[in-house]
Amino acid sequence: MSKYSKKSKNSEIEPKTSQSSNSGGKEDNKIITIILAVIAVLLLIQTVQKYNESRSTVPITRPEVTQNQPLQQQQDMNINQQIQPDMQQQQPQTAGPTTEVTYSTMSHDFGTVAANETKRHTFRLANTGDTDLQYTNVYGDQGVNVLSWPTQPIPPGGSGEIDIEFNPQGESGPVNKIIHLDANTNPGHVHINVTANVQ
């Protein structure tokens, strides 16, 4: 009889064991469901972020502001850099008569420059045409600040100067920068090159 009672005790235990494994399975299912829900939420967040990144195709850049550059020209430069960051600027259409200008040089090489060194240069120009010369915008690439440029009309036979400052901070090796000049000339948009070897 003792054998039988042990057997019945075991048979009583067996159902309890199978019940506890079923409740453990339910808990496992709940944990798996929670983990899958968290993964789904993370994937949804990542998808929304990628969608928002793909909608923002124009990089916002903050151009360097020069001391003597009028506010409207700074704003125009900001807009141009945001709208056409990688495109060559189109030449502005000049309203009214055009004139001719002669520059002392169309490039300047600063030679070897230390990365923390600032250099200045003055470009001289002369109005060799028959009409007043009027600059509408003069600005440099990043690292070239235009300190001053003729903001008043230059009469025929008159002259002027464009003062720049070259700051190669963050650059190394051969550097080529451009100064952009917009005026009532033909062509209306002219480049002056600035080069240096930054060490």
Explain this structure.
The protein is α+β, with helices and mostly antiparallel strands and 199 residues long. It has a domain at 71-198: Sandwich (Immunoglobulin-like), CATH 2.60.40. 34% of the residues lie in helices and 30% in strands. It has helices at residues 2-55, 71-83; strands at 101-103, 107-113, 119-127, 135-140, 144-148, 159-166, 173-183, 189-198. Strands 1-3-6-5 form a 4-stranded antiparallel β-sheet, with no helix packed on it. A 4-stranded mixed β-sheet has the order 2-8-7-4, with no helix packed on it. β7 (173-183) and β8 (189-198) form a beta hairpin. The chain is elongated.
Key terms:
2 helices; about 30% strand; disordered N terminus; 8 strands; alpha+beta; Immunoglobulin-like; about 200 residues; four-stranded mixed β-sheet
